[in-house]
Amino acid sequence: MTVGLAAFLRARLDEDERIARAAFPASWVRHEHVAGVHADDAEEGRQYGTAVADCRRVPDGYGVPNALHIHRHQPARVLADVEAHRAVLDLYENPETSEALPDSLNRLTTSVQRHVLGDVVRLLALPYAGHPDYRDEWRP
Questions:
Q1: What is the rounded distance in angstroms from the CA atom of residue 135 to the CA atom of residue 30?
Q2: In angstroms, rounded to a whole number, what is the distance separating the alpha carbons of residues 75 and 16?
Q3: Residue 94 and residue 112: Cα distance in Å, rounded?
Q4: Which pLDDT value is given to residue 5?
Q5: Closest CA to 65 of 55, 78, 57, 52
Q6: How far apart are CA 126 and CA 128, in angstroms?
Q7: What pTM did the predictor assign?
Q8: Alpha carbons 35 and 53: distance in angstroms, whole number
Q9: Is 35 helix (H, G, I), strand (E, B) or coil?
């Protein structure tokens, strides 16, 4: 894997984080079988105002599934996902070694870790394959 893929993925994660942090800060709430979600404007005693995602005007049958999707992928979850993906990238870029092991064994374990995590990083980047900077050679 090239260094370019790790940098590409970090840039996409930065974009995801920026968008999630710019979104309405409260948790999105969904009531069963309602075709929409709203932000909990009383979260932790703070007043955010009103934010609503009304899914009633989408084609028949999609309102509730759209509301479920919005509720499930709210900013807090996106931020947790970004953090987890960055942790994988950190493990790839800085594999663990041990001073108690000989250099030859550390080189071997580092090589194995990078190989395995390289496959994981390729898979993590796959959802961004439609981005203009994505290279086909990165496909798993």
A1: 38
A2: 9
A3: 13
A4: 95
A5: 55
A6: 5
A7: 0.79
A8: 9
A9: coil
- How is residue 71 written in tokens? 């509720």
CB atoms within 10 A of CB 89: 19
Quote the distance between the C-alpha of residue 90 and its chain's center: 15
CB 88 within 8 A of CB 117: yes
Q: What is the pLDDT of residues 2-13, one digit of tens each?
A: 559 999 999 999
Q: Say which amino acid occupies 118.
A: G
Calpha distance 16→106 (Å, rounded): 35
CA 113 to CA 97: how far, in whole Å?
A: 10
* Whether the predicted pLDDT of 16 surpasses 90: yes
Instruction: Please give the pLDDT value at position 17.
Output: 96
Average pLDDT over residues 63-91: 88
Q: In the prediction, which pLDDT does 98 show?
A: 82
CA dihedral for 71, 72, 78, 83, sign (positive or negative): positive
Chain centre distance of CA 69: 15
